[in-house]
Every structure is written in C-alpha cells, then in structure tokens.
Amino acid sequence: MEIQHLSHQQIDKHRWDQVVLHTPGSTIYGQSWYLDATCPEWEALITSDYTRVMPLTARKKYGFSYLYQPLLSQQLGVYSLKRLKPEEADEFLNAIPHNFKLIEITLNEQSKPSQQFSVDSHTTLRLNLNYSYTLLQEKFSENTRRNLIKASKEGLRFRTNININELMELMSKDKSAGAKVLVVRKNQLALHRLATSMINRKAGMICGVKNRHGELLAAALMGQDKAFHYYLAPALNEEGRESRAMFYLIDRYIHLHAGLPVTLDFEGSDIPSVARFYQGFGTAPSTYSSLRINRLPWPLKQLANRRIK
Hints:
The protein contains 12 helices and 14 strands. The chain is an alpha+beta fold.
C-alpha cells in the first residue's frame, strides 16, 4: 500500500470527504470542514487512489512538531472505504513522518492496530433514537426520571435557536472542568469557528433552556450528520444546575428527534460521575482507542509524561 504525506494545501478535500462520508461507522470529526475549524493547518496521509485517508492534526511547541487530538474531536484515525485490517492500520501509523516527535491521538473504531502498538481503551455512550419517545423514556433511570419531574415544575422552556455568543457567555459562568477548558482563549476561537461552520452548513444547532423570565440556564452545541448526533459543548449556570435544566435539555432533544434513524453520541465519558449522568438516559457503551508515541530525545522524553496542550 503506497501512502503519501500531503500538506494542507495539497489535499483534495472533495475526494477526502467522499472517503470519510462513505467509511463504515464514520463520524463527523473527520470531515474536511470540521477539521478546518478545529485544526486549520491539518495535514494528511492518503493512498494514491484516495480510498484510505488519515488526518494529521499537527501543532508545534517548544521547537518540535507533534500530533494532538483537536478540540471537540473525540476520535479520528484512518478512514477507509473498506473495512481496515489491523496490519493495514499499522501501515498508516508507521507512515506518520518522524518529524512528529510526540503523537497523542485517538483512533476511530475502524482504526484498530495490531499488538505492535500499545493503545488505551476509552468509552463513549450512545443512544439509538430510532424508537418512539415513549419507548426511549422507558429506559431512563429512576434518578433521571426524578430530576425531570423536578425540572417540569420550574417553568423551563426548550429552545433550538441559541446563538454562539449566548453559549459562550453562559460557558463563562459554568464552573465545571470541561467549561474551563473551552473558555481558554485559543479554544474559544476554535469553538466559535466550529459552531459557525456547523450552523451555516445545517450540520448542527445550539439548543438551550430558559427560565420563565427568558434567562438562559443551559445550552449545548449539538452536531448532526446522517448517522449520528453529537453532544459537543454543554454549558450550565448555577440556577440551571438547581433547576435540573441540563436533564430537561437532553430530554427535550431526545423528544424532538425520537424516531429518526440516528444515534445520539454523548461523547464520553471515562469520568464515572459524567458517565452515570449519560447512562441515566438509557445509553449503551461503545469503545475507541488512544495512541501515544514519544519520540522525543532525552531528557525531553522524560519531561513529556503529561499531555502537551
């Protein structure tokens, strides 16, 4: 298999997207417009016939180049029109240019390498929406039901037309660890690019929950493609937490899309408390892998035990 390394300018994005969109189990993260928003100078490995492709999400820091997992991109890896054998996934990973001294990426479900590579397993939680809302609701946990009963008494209103500035303002008031990451300046810019591109392409929306006074309590950027919907960037203030507004938002989103042949991906989580919240909506686990290769010279090799941001 002949694999070529292309710079960003050399990538034929039309041909690229044809591969990504027709890869079995493909997700939104590998589409060219999504990569343009989250990692504007991404590079690529491709076969000469454009039947298999892999994004190289590159960045430079401290004088060396490395590969990282971009913001709000749960899994990337190799995209292939045919199912990929482990040894074929190996060929792509071995073809990553050696000028990338540190590799910290996640791999989609198709990109499972052989035991030549040591990978860590991660869990995402998904909900098949291709049922009536009544049937979906029956799988909610007792805790989720109790929280929805509380939310129903708060006079909350679900909205699907929240703008990006409202989301960012709400996020600045959210004290959760995830929100703190998203409000870092460079991440704000990436989130703004992604949300704008997503909404312009009708590939997602920002949903929100307001109180009876019209004040925004909870919001989330939701990505959408033919097979999956994605719970990408939630934000919640203290009043929203007290009124269970995020339970209400997800419930209303499920109600709105119940019966469609799509799967709602909650994007995680390996954090037990977050996983319990998602599991309360009747989700099922799905696994993917992460890969870390450290090619840095000594002593930088020892100093790079923590992930580079």
